[in-house]
Every structure is written in C-alpha cells, then in structure tokens.
Amino acid sequence: MEVAPSLVLDQYAQLPRTGKPQPGEWTVVAGIVLHSPSEAPRVVALGSGTKCLPAAAVAADTRGSRLHDTHAEVGARRALRLFLMDQLERAARGAPSIVVPRADGRGYDVAAGVEFHLFSSAPPCGDAAVVASAGPAAAAAQIECERPPTHAAKRHKPSAASPPAASPPAASPPAASPPAASPPAASPPAASPPAASPPAASPPAASPPAASPPAASPPANGSTAPLPAEQGKECAQTGARPVSPRAAEGEAAARGRACVAGVARTKPGRGERTCCMSCSDKLARWHAVGVQGALLSLLIPTPLRLASVTAGGRASLDALLRAIASRVTTPSAPAAPRVAIARGVAFEYAQPSYPSHRRPASQEGDTRPCSNALLWYSGGTCEAVNGLTGLRMGANKRSFSPKHRAQACKALLLRRFCKLCIAVPKHHLPPEISAEAMSRSSYASIKGLATAYQQRKLEFLQSSVFREWVIAPPVCEAFTDEDVNGPPSEVQEAARAIV
C-alpha cells in the first residue's frame, strides 16, 4: 500500500516524546494500516524498538510479566492483537466494530473487504536482510552484527513423522543492499543480563515515499542457498544468527554460512544468544498461521494475514518475498502478500548507516540503538517500554510490581482474554471455551484449545526451513490468570464493566 509509509511515520510523529530516541540514538518503527471499503486507510497498530531479552531472562519470566521481544515488527503485531481485542469488546456490547458474528454463530470474522498492511522503516532482521551488495560502494551500509555466542539454546523438536530437511534449491536473484557483517556463530548461549538486539535498519533520503511494485515472481519455496559472492559481489546480511548448529566448522565456514539465504535465525545479542526468532521468521510464521495468534483464534478462527508488507531502507523485493512467503511450504500455504520497497522515506530516527542519510551536525558521530520501545493501538494509549527489561519505563530494577507490566505482556493479555470470554454472548463462544474455567486454566492450555491454529503451526514447524525453531521453556506459559492476576471474581466484575 503506497500510503502506508507516510501514515505510519505521521502517526509515530504524533506520539508522546517519552520512549523515543535521544540524540545519538536510532530506532526502527513499524505500523499496521487498516484499509476497508467504508473508510480511508488508517493506522491501527504501531510499534518501535530494537531489543530483545537474552535466553536466561526469558526462562526466568515464569509469570508472563515481561515482553521478551520489542523489535518494531513484533511490537506492531502485539498492538494489532490489542486492537482486535478492543474491537471484540465493542462487538460484544453492540458498538460499531470491524468484527462481525460468523454465519454459524460461533465466533467472529473481520468484516468483508478489511485488509491489514504492514510498513517497517527498515528491512526485517533475519532472512529479509540477507541480500547481495554491489561491492565496496556499499561498505557504509554494513548492518550491525553481534559478538559470537558461547553456548547452546533450546530448539523445537519436530515429531518423528516430520519430513526430512529438503536439499537447498537455488536462491532468488540478489538485490542491492549492505555489505557483509561479522559471521554468526554456531551455537546459541545462555545469557544473563539483557541483550541488545539491533535489527536491520536503514535510513532514507528526503524525497516523498514511493513504494516500488511487487516482485513479479517469487523464488523457489524453501530456498536456502548461498548468495552469488563468486560473481564478484559482496554478501551483506543481518546480525541475526542461523539456528542450525555447525559445532565442528571453522571460522571460514561459519563466515560462509552467514551468506546463506533462506535459513531460520535467532536475533542477536551483545555476546549472548537469545531465544527470539528473527522478525523475518516471525513474519513467515504469521503468514502461515495467522497474525492474530492462538488466543484470538478461539474467537476469530479464520486466519488473518497481512495483505501487503512494505519495507524502507535498503530492502530487496526478492529477499523480502523469500523471507515472508517463499520459505513457507506447508500444505495450506496461502498466496504470498504483496511486497514493496519504500524508497526515499525520511524517518527522523533511522540508523545513519548510509552515505545518503542526512543528519544535523550536532548529531554526527557514533550512534547506538535506542533501548526503549513504544507500543500504540487505535482506541488505546501509547506505552513506553524498556526493551532491556521488558517492563514499562520507570519500573524499579530492584523491586518488581504488577503495575510495571506492559499492557501486551502475556499475563495482561490473558486477563483481558478472560474478561472477553465472559463479556461475549455464550452462543458466540466456541464449544471448547468455558468462560468460568478460563481463569484457572494455564496460558498454554488455553492456546492449545485453538486446534486448527495449532495444526497450522505444527505444519509450519515441521517444514524443512523451520524444523529447529527456538522456543521458550514451557514454564514460561504454565501460569494461570488466577495465579498472576487474582481470583475469578475480579475477572467477572471487570468483564461486566465491558458490557
């Protein structure tokens, strides 16, 4: 969507100053634009940020209190889920909403003609940032890469029936982009302090945004092939690290694998491996299973998918399409979304990595990624989060309180879902849901009730590219709403307030 970049950047400019970069800092912003036949396009969800927590901090979060990943694209998707919950609450009380009851009476659907379009000010970290660059001229465009990891992380283990990994086909044609960064290491480390995880970011020129047309033909499904560095081109890549282990490979081999297109990657940390998959991999997953997630699939069972994805900076159409859609080889794989590159999008806080970027003289010199993140959705408030802790800005590092939790954390998302199940008329609830029992059921068990969603997810995780998807420890989703938010009576009172 051609207007998505300007709408998202305008919305970001209108948000409060708290949580935005200070002089010498940069960030990435992503937003989701709603388009429908009955109204002009508008931004309904927005996120900014560049950080994620290390594996050790994620494993310690057993009550769903922290945001593990505050990269911009992930924040925008979290904000979209909050927006959809708000729309379901409106529908439950008979107010105008973009969701309408399904024909069979069980659950809701998004109204006909409604589309969601994503814009990110930089190429999503991971596979979408792995492209071929045109030699030394792109040296200033190098994407920041982190120090190598030191220990192993947990991976998804597919069932015995999973198909064997496919041999790598030819990669899609490379496009221009930044030069090679330092090589990712072979195995993921367990980390202690929070880790910085800069995504692939890129600054723009000052001309008005213009999205390039979608790629004409997608590359081969499941493409995992090295880029053609042997043809006199350099290989540029994200700082994200390939998941597949190569414990015995030498430094040269590891550097070569950094240029492999199509593989799954985790987000980088400052010397500490994270268990957060790259934004490219998450976009592929949302494309395969639906952007609304497991909880909302219980009330909106039809998969919601992005109609288009537009990226700013030095993004490549081929890499973007490969990362999001061409690697998805499940039996129910949907048609690829439209992809576009927004050239000349002037984002004030873009990473100043490219010669074409213009920044005031007072801001020249070394820059660093902003550690804060913003999350906003239409109908809600803007919230600033410390990306190094996953808690709201201002939270005391020494003493945790429930008021420090961000509105999109798992604990508060579960509380809001439990309220929603009580507020929604019973005849609109699927038979699997007992509104009265929700507060005593674990977060993981409630997600498991969305059987169609879980089947799509299983097919996705068993595909050759994503067989070693890194997952958080099960204990991170073993909590119940009653455990972390209080007794069911409080939920029922809060739910009655909705209607």
Strand percentage lies at 5-15%
- Structural classification: alpha+beta
DSSP strand tally: 17
Alpha plus pi helix count:
12
Low-confidence stretches: 134-154, 157-235, 354-364, 494-499
Spatial strand order of the main sheet: 8-13-12-6-2-3-15-16-17
Q: Between the first and last Cα atoms, what is the distance in angstroms?
A: 36 Å
- What is the averaged pLDDT score? 78
What form results from the Cα inertia axes? globular
Computed over alpha carbons, the radius of gyration is 22 Å
Sheet having the most strands: 9 strands, mixed
EC number: 3.5.4.34
Biased composition (Pro residues): 165-217
Keywords: Hydrolase, Metal-binding, tRNA processing, Zinc
Region (Disordered): 148-258
List keywords for this structure.
two-stranded parallel sheet; 499 residues; zinc; 17 strands; nine-stranded mixed β-sheet; alpha+beta; 24% helix; A_deamin; RNA binding; tRNA processing; disordered C terminus; EC 3.5.4.34
Question: How would you describe what is shown here?
Answer:
It is built from twelve helices and 17 strands. The chain has about 500 residues and is an alpha+beta fold. Helix 3 runs parallel beside helix 8, helix 5 crosses helix 7 and helix 8 crosses helix 12 (about 490-499). It is globular.
List the helices and strands and how they pair.
Elements lengths: L3 H11 L10 E2 L2 E8 L2 E10 L6 H6 L11 H21 L6 E3 L6 E3 L4 E6 L10 E3 L76 E2 L22 E3 L4 E2 L8 H7 L7 E2 L12 H11 L3 H5 L10 E4 L5 H10 L11 E6 L24 E2 L2 E6 L5 E4 L4 E2 L17 H14 L19 H6 L2 H11 L19 H5 L2 H11 L1
Parallel strand pairs: 1-14, 6-12, 12-13
Antiparallel strand pairs: 2-3, 2-6, 3-15, 4-5, 7-9, 8-13, 10-11, 15-16, 16-17
Helix pairs in contact: 3-8, 5-7, 8-12
